[in-house]
Amino acid sequence: MSGEEYNRSDNDTLIVTDDREDRYSRLRLISWWEQDVIQSSSVMVVGVGALGNEVAKNLALLGVGRLILVDFDVVEASNLTRSVLFRAHDSGRRKVDVAVERIRELNPDVNVTGLHADINLDVGLGVFRRMNVVVGCLDNREARLSVNRACCRVGVPWVDGGIQELSGAVKVFLPGGACYECGMSEVDYRLMNLRYSCPLLRREDIIMGRVPTVPTVSSIIGGMQAQEAVKLIHGMTDSGGKVYNYSGLAGDFYSVEMPFRKDCMSHETYDNIIELDEGADTLTPKRLMEIDCEQNHGGEPGFVVLDRELVTCLKCPGCGIEREHAVALGKVTEDHARCAECGNLMMPELTHTIHSDDPIAERTFAELGMPPLHILSVRRRTGTAYYELSADSNKIMSSGKIFSEKF
Ligand SMILES: [Zn+2]
Ligand SMILES: [Zn+2]
Description:
Bound molecules: zinc ion
CATH superfamily of the largest domain: NAD(P)-binding Rossmann-like Domain
Largest sheet: 9 strands, mixed
Distance between the termini: 48 Å
Helix content: 25-40%
Strand content: 15-25%
Number of helices: 13
CATH class of the largest domain: Alpha Beta
Strand order of the largest sheet: 8-7-6-5-4-1-2-3-15
Shape: globular
Order of helices and strands: HHHEHEHEHEHEEHHHEEEHEEHEEEHE
Radius of gyration: 23 Å
Number of strands: 15
Number of domains: 2
């Protein structure tokens, strides 16, 4: 029915008038819709592929106030059949840069930021903490698990989507409920660990299998993800803990409850996060431990526990050479990993704790590979305290910037 017909009164068609005729007037007609709430909400879309395009497009049309788009890929010709935001002449450009431009065209009201970043390593927990919802548009288990753990830690709901051929699934995860990892099987872990058979050179291993997908299914699943995000923004949580399965070939659509596992490793939460006037490029572990002592009224000193493995040293199995190399695992490049003497792949020594007398305690967290706006843990006998690098907030969350270089 066209708009004109809609206003005709010579039959029993409803006449709809709205004095607040604006961009969002048709959305406001929904009885429970709160455009102001949507406009003041923040959503992060992780992955700007086939699904991410659809989700970002829908959230922009709906007027979500702040959108953060994360992806480390560039546009390729094969993306064009499934990506409404990309054009042929965008080939070779960063997906986030192109998507940010197109989202601004679609709806200038939206404050959109692009992070050209690896979600497993480069996005600080403080970014997650500032979101109302996170939408995962990912194609691998590792990235889903990263998003899941981050969202669980800071208590943010997230919506996962997956597509293959004419089928897809949407999962809604709420803080404290069944999470992505609760549903992971031994096979899932095994497939993930296969990629870690060599602990270095992780990035190179994540050449994804190319999954056959079509734009119709990414529209359906991406549309549902955006819809679930909008419901969550409105405080509707009925979909939590459910997976919605869609089989396009059979024309089947059904939902099932997801399992909840009590001993799930993702269920650790960060409580009472303390915001510091420090950033990743100013704060050192040593200074953080001092701050923690002050917070703790000079009690027993604690030590930093990282949420990821840190390489402290590389050893060559061939010629025995050792080289200090303090950086987060996953940030080691092939150049660094090869022995300069014999060309062998060096073996890393790993840690995830830093004590105040460790030499690396005087490096900044940025030098150690921790992302801006991250949340760090200091453990002592009395418990664990959480500190956020909040001085980075302005850099990342300020309006309209594209962070490509930093990441
Ligand atoms: Zn779980
Ligand atoms: Zn060597």
